[in-house]
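*** Protein under study ***
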Amino acid sequence: MCRHIAYLGPDVPLGRILTEPPHSLYRQSWAPRRQRNGTVNADGFGVGWYAPGDPVPARYRKAGPIWADPSFTDLARVVRTGALLAAVRDTTDGSAPDESATAPYGEGSWLFSHNGAVPGWPGSVADLAADLSAEELLGIEARCDAALLWALILHRLRAGYALGDALAETVTDVAARTEARLNFLLTDGSSIAATAWGDSLWHRLDPGRSVAVASEPYDDEPGWIEVPDRTLLLATRDRIETALLKEPPV
């Protein structure tokens, strides 16, 4: 499993969201409070952020634990952004151990993270790869379940799907084949789409100013709301919308 977070709002240092709060993503790497599977997220970390005037985010990813990289703490102190997606990783068995398998994944303006696992991967979902072209298959960034899920979602995004629809249809397809945990987080820098499917998801909205969507609250301040399981969430700085995800056929 993993922990992840997306933020939209006023420009702030990365550390204001990721390292400074008492239960920040940094601390969740060794002491998550609401993680249902796994205990330590020390197999990698990453953050993607958007700079003013550039729709393509930068990414900083490492294969080791976040607490072992003092350069990141220094970077997070000075780099400012109004939109980010970050994650700490607990590796799925059989997955690549290097930073290529560490979220966020990205293409163009999109950033993506998966908190969960796909039992029986890759065999349990191998038939879904038939929807991908040879170029898309060869372009999968890493050997892990999250990278394949990202390829399936990216295929839909390239075809013109809205962020939420791309996530929802992928959840339905995968859940019909295996008892997967599929908490997705996806942003284009101006909106966030997320799914709660098998693990915790929370959000906090300050309408017209900021929104955070995360595996768990990074502080104990009021305003955090837990998202029910089997839910699709769509968020902007102005509003939160939720809808039940379609259950796979029995």
Notes: The mean pLDDT is 94. DSSP finds six helices and 13 strands in the chain.
